[in-house]
Amino acid sequence: MLRILLVEDDPDVAMVTSELLEYCGYHVTTASNGRYGLDIILQEQPQLIITDFMMPMMSGLEMIEKARDAGYAGPIILCSALPESQFPPHHARYDLFMSKPYSANALISALEHLRAKM
To answer: What is the pTM of this model?
Structure first.
């Protein structure tokens, strides 16, 4: 069972997304901001991370940078309502960008795509 960390500050989005992923057979841990997400990454080493960009305490990009600097090598999906063109190209070393809102099918397809590369 793939262990996924979902970092999302909107409780409704976090609940719906984690329930979807668990229904699809994934083990999901959630964090409500980048700082808590980074703590979980360093302690639990999830196999895959899905993170929002705009969050309190630490943005998704900051969290990704700190995780990569600490040696995390697993795939990371960055999600945002802002267009990807507003970020420097893979500035934070994420593997896939998803525009919000995303569909359940698009998220599962992205996970399966990244999982096949693992």
So the answer is: 0.94
